[in-house]
Amino acid sequence: MRSHSQLLLARVGQHQSEATNARFTVFQALAAVGVAPEQADEIVSQLEAGAVAGAHTWISESSAPHGSEQRFEDGWFAGVRAVASDLLRIADTTAAQRGRATSSALLLAHLQQPASPRPEGGSR
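^ thats the sequence. predicted structure below, dont judge the formating
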């Protein structure tokens, strides 16, 4: 039986894989309508930074369970501030990411190349 942490890691991995596939699809669609790679990077980075900023807002607006002791609430809010700070840093970093559209286009071009025939026998 898988532990709770293994299940959480599996879910995170699934979300990361789906995000990579979605990002690749968006880059393909943007390229197909003539959006330059630099502009595609900016669009996707802003969308991803916005998602992280949404998580920041959700965390920042959370509160300790009703009826908690003051020490628990103090610890809760210290943790919320730490996580919110990390999320803001991640959003800033994500917004600044560049070069992924070009690398996606190169990967797509590589994947679309026909497979070269394998030499038979290996010797002449």
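Residues 4-110 form one domain.
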